[in-house]
Amino acid sequence: MNRVELAERGRPARDDRVASARPIYMDHHATTPVDPRVADVVLDAMVNVFGNANSVDHTHGEAALELVERATAEVAGLIGSDAAGVRFTSGSTESIRLAVGHAIATRRNRVLRIAATTVEHQAVLDAIRIGVRSGLAEVIWIEVDAEANLRAESLQAALSENVDLVCVMGANNEVGTIYPVEQIARDVHLAGAKVLVDGTQAVGRADLRVLDWDLDYLAFSSHKIYGPKGVGALAVSSDAVHSEITEHVLGHDGTLNVPGIAGFGEACRLMRVEGAGDERRIRACRDRLETHLLRGLPDIVVNGNRGNRLAHNLHLSAPGIPNDAVIARLRNKVAVSTGAACSSGAQTPSHVLRAMGLSENMQEGAIRIGLGKYTTQDEVDRAAAEIVAAVRGVAGSMRGV
Predict the structure, then answer these.
(1) pLDDT of residue 341
(2) For helices 181-190 and 152-159, angle between their N-to-C axes, nearest 10 degrees
(3) Catalytic, out of 167, 268, 285, 342
(4) What is the pLDDT of residues 116-153, one digit of tens each?
(5) Domain 18-34+275-399 has CATH 3.30.565.10
(6) How far apart are CA 106 and CA 115, in angstroms?
(7) Does the annotation mark 342 as catalytic?
């Protein structure tokens, strides 16, 4: 019996009754379940291809390195990058910090001038603030409108300020608005600056091409596309940047997470091959859910750009209805969130919704729903009924009914 068979014997048997009793999962912005085919690749790498990819003096290390190289090609294929431009990390947050760190390091003795949208993910905001607090960077903010669309005049004003780096997300992690990255990158380069794209929510779901669009830095994570947690990538358009990050930012490369990288590669392969079909089905489920909710809760408002948003995103506000009370009623029934995973459960308003200019009532009643490729129409219908009941229940309790 080989190691895979031994591991299989140790897996708990699936119990469909237990699975059906779990809350319906609709928080795919925070993380996605691992595709079983990806899990098989990860397990095989753990128990059969366990060598150190940096130790190629023997066949175990060579096999591990070969697995990493295959995965690298799949990751690069999904985002239109050269394999040489892909650097593996622990996830988007590390990728973003490496990119900002490299941009600061290559400015030598001059402060890095950064322009960033006001709706960037907290990981980007934190990386910028670290640079600002250290006296190594300064920031100019790019404003958005009520649908979280980037204001073109605000971008042009920032570019006229002699900025070095522009940070823009591929798609917003809260309201799902998709950004015109190709045009933004073109404008940024014409102004003599570089662009850092946070592709965490967008990779595999919206078009992103590192080489064709000359994206200087693209950060994304495995666990947003049905891969394992704890692995991500920073893709760069210049091969020289890859080695510069090691030299100026890291100092040395560590041991590669071979099982995670292998799983990441398989997740990228599946997204490239099956993603378009999955997205069409997810969009249909999202639209079905939206229709149910608008019918059952006529006062709710759908936030973001409804004509240009991620297929799995549904962000809505029930004005004046506290979202934490709604979430509490849904806790054991439907898994949704009040916002980004990094701030979910926090009592502070979403900086994204504030930047969009939403009223306090709209911010207070905001709920983020994220569907996935395993979401069924039956789950959509049941989730809609539960959400409607929860919102009505909270509204009734506020009226003393």
Answers:
(1) 52
(2) 30
(3) 342
(4) 999 999 999 999 999 999 999 999 999 999 999 999 99
(5) no
(6) 17
(7) yes
